[in-house]
Design a protein that fits this description.
about 160 residues, alpha+beta, Sufe protein. Chain: A, 3-stranded antiparallel beta sheet, 6 helices, 3 strands, about 20% strand, binds FE2/S2 (inorganic) cluster
């Protein structure tokens, strides 16, 4: 079928010279996702830099274990997200990440989703900081009051009737 031949050509083009392939030693974050159905796993590294007060993606790289479509999409996606903030990169849709590969056949959509998943996993810590958990020993208000009372402090309680 012509459309598939076309796609195959575009995938092969991207495969012939995949961009940003390989581990990044000085990455700021890394994301890994796997698909248990096809056994493919994709890892993505991202490095940021400051740009006029904005934190943008300086470069991204990836490693994939065999799936040509995932490699082709990852190659395009890692180019596409350069210069974007984490939020902007996360706002990209799967089809946008696949870029010039064009619409993927249904059986190949999950390959692009794998790239998207790895990207989300790598970028997530940048957009949603880990919740700051309250220190376990945080004193309750009651503790503070009894400590204050025990140390001879004066506690003034509001008198509701005088309001
Ligand atoms: Fe599963 Fe491409 S075949 S990621």
């Amino acid at each position: 079928m012509a459309m598939n031949d076309d796609l195959q050509k575009r995938i092969q083009q991207a495969m012939a010279d995949p961009k940003n392939l390989g581990e990044m030693a000085d990455a700021d974050s890394v994301g890994t996702v796997g698909n248990s159905d096809c056994g493919e796993m994709l890892r993505m590294w991202v490095k940021f830099r400051e740009d006029g007060g904005r934190k943008i993606i300086d470069k991204a790289s990836f490693q994939s274990f065999g799936c040509e479509t995932a490699i082709a999409v990852a190659s395009l996606a890692t180019e596409l997200i350069r210069g974007k903030t984490a939020e902007e990169a996360l706002a990209l849709k799967t089809e946008e990440l696949a870029g010039e590969l064009g619409p993927l056949p249904p059986m190949k959509i999950h390959c692009a989703q794998l790239v998207e998943g790895a990207l989300r996993s790598a970028l997530a810590p940048q957009t949603a900081p880990a919740p700051v958990s309250a220190p376990k020993s945080a004193p309750t208000l009651l503790d503070s009051i009894s400590n204050l009372a025990a140390s001879g402090g004066k506690i003034t309680f509001l008198d509701e009737t005088s309001a």
